[in-house]
Amino acid sequence: MVAVNDGDGVFADGEGMRAWLKSETVEALTAGGAWPTPSTAALWNRFREETLTGSVRRWRATEVRRVLMGGKQRPANGTYRVEIDRGTGNVWICTPDYRRLCRLRSRVRDTRSAFYAAKFSPGDNRALIQRFGVGQAEWQIAEA
Fold this sequence. Notes:
Layout: H1 2-6, H2 14-22, H3 24-31, H4 41-53, E1 60-66, E2 78-84, E3 90-94, E4 100-109, E5 114-120, E6 127-133, E7 138-141
Antiparallel strand pairs: 1-6, 2-3, 2-5, 3-4, 4-7, 5-6
């Protein structure tokens, strides 16, 4: 907000934002090295550079249905957090406060930026796993 306010940012779409980022005003403010604030200047420079070079990647949404680890009762219908153990690839269904409820039989390897959600619906004991992010995840069946 500081950048938009101090840099006179007036735009209504991505093209307008890129034109504003290329403007002499924003170029001069950025060149000072401490704008929009000293603590956010590095982040701002990265954002501006990625946006102007076109290296910002599109996120996409994917869905897969996965079975719970044997013998576990599924949570009530609804939406849950997903926690991935980065070391093992184990996938846990969690409450909003990260309390683990159950584990999926599948493991996942995901090296890209993404976030996950799990949904349970009436009449289906599998978890609908939703992934939002760059690239795609690699799923595999875990040992029991």
